[in-house]
Amino acid sequence: MSDFWRSRRVFLTGANGFLGGFLRERLAREEPAGLLTPTSQELDLRDAAAVRSYLQAQKPDLVIHAAAVVGGIGANQLHPGRFFYENAVMGIHLIEEARLAGVAKFVCLGTICAYPKFTPVPFREDDLWNGYPEETNAPYGIAKKALLVQLQAYRQEYGFNGVFLLPVNLYGPQDNFDPQTSHVIPAMIRKFVEANRAGSPRVEMWGDGSPTREFLYVEDAADAIVMAAEAYDGPDPVNLGSGEEIAIRDLATSTAKKTGFIGEIVWDTSKPNGQPRRRLEITRAAELFGFRARVSLDEGLTRTIDWYRRNDAT
Prior knowledge:
The structure is a single chain. The chain is α/β, with parallel strands linked by helices. The chain has a single domain (3-173, 214-244, 277-295), classed as 3-Layer(aba) Sandwich (Rossmann fold), CATH 3.40.50. Helices cover 44% and strands 15% of the residues. Helix 6 links the parallel strand 4 (105-109) and strand 5 (162-167). The protein is globular.
């Protein structure tokens, strides 16, 4: 616990989501003066009047905006309009009403999907505007990136202290394992575990397995956000990542081995690959607020698979 947290009332959006749940627990350990975690039923962030009333009544000093409408490639293709509108409008209303309410600091979580499709690897924060995002998740990425523009504009005009963080793909226990909306790691884990249970000789994956991705264990992400909230007050966006890059094909092989699946992995090349490569330049987070990931992908996969096996109700 530090003096920073002891004197602050913290409003965390998305506290019942995957990352939000870990953030809520991590923040609670800091023992802030108050920790506000309303559900989406209790507070609709799309409703500016409701947000205004909530902030006026609760008077938070710090807002951490972790709420988002998210999903994998399939979900982004099915709901591009919803993903754009809801992610944009939630953040726009919340930032404006926080400014009007005199909130001292605003921490906004963006997305790696905001980067251009062909960003040079490793992705540097300064490359964020050098092209259009990968088409399958561009509406979501652009909606989130608009919030960076808003925060920087508000800092310039109003002196509003808003910071913007760019987490890479997250994974870990309590992730979303729904086959329609999950991201790559939980989707793989579920497919292999279910194939083992059914005795299936093959598992099908989207694309050709060539794209690469970087993953950040969810507890590391929560640590990074808390560290940034306490120590970073600048206008520049900051990447949050592990620095580990892995091809989807190699990730599938590793996940199959850890789950005990010994059948064939079939790649459906009629399905999109998504962005060709993802790996972040992560020195800015280390230099500005001392964050370095602690959990390796190998260890994180093991923990996530173990959690899924203990909690799988299907």
